[in-house]
Amino acid sequence: MLQRSTIQLLRLHFAFFLLPVYLFALSQVPVINTGHAILIFFILHLLVYPSSNGYNSYMDRDESSIGGVKHPLQPTRQLFYLSIIMDVVAVLLSLFISYWFTFCIIAYIAASRAYSYRGIRLKKYPIGGYLTVIIYQGAVTWFMVYHGSSIDKTIAVPPAGMVTASLLIGGFYPLTQVYQHEADRKDGVVTISALLGYRGTFIFTALVYTAAMSILAWWFFTHGEQKKFIALATMMLPILVYFFSWAFLVWKDVRTANFANAMRMNILASICTNLAFLTILIWRGFE
Known about the structure:
Largest sheet: none
Transmembrane segments: 12-32, 79-109, 129-148, 155-176, 196-222, 229-251, 263-283
Pfam families: UbiA
Number of strands: 0
CATH architecture: Orthogonal Bundle
Organism: Niastella caeni
Structural class: mainly alpha
Helix content: over 70%
Mean pLDDT: 93
Protein name: Prenyltransferase
Strand content: under 5%
Shape: globular
CATH topology: Farnesyl Diphosphate Synthase
Subcellular location: Membrane
Low-confidence stretches: none
């Protein structure tokens, strides 16, 4: 029987925060292999992402709030063994998609372990850790979904989509770290947010998010899909409203860069971005 701490630290709900990359990539595939698209969703969101969360929690043994969990329980060996089993199942299932997809899944798992493993610990390096996250959760995942969900298993994946996916992840990831500076410092970790400081984090994320939206605009306009971009940008507008409201509070008092506000930002951004890309995906059915 799974222990309560194991279930909590897998953070299954956290996969919702990464769903926009999947929906974005799927919405751009010319002809979708529906069966493979569903299998890819299962592999990523119910195996790879939770396993990565669990392994990270096993290595970190957090005592303060972490992404999506205000009061984390202490992990046990069960969590470690379960993460290995989930990874093995993910790799085996990925063989039904393609060898390219399997290679990417293995690379993703390896990067995730290198990020958390105490012997390597990429997360303690602000630049290296940040790049690892945005490349694998962004560009590599976008490649996997686009390639794996396509009928012909093309590897001619649009670079603009991969770059945009990484920038979208990169525009929000530092905000998930902004309340953890002290806890991370005690653990010997210097995140990109800690390196930038409270105000610097907001300025940096605003610039990265602007770059992501600029490429999205170019992407849709060059494909003659201006209406889609306008719809997408409109649905993402609440994100900007909350972001600047929160930034204003942090400018006045850095104590407002806390867990509660960070989670509100994360949840709102995920809902709006998921809704936006889901709308673009559904839109295809009426064309």
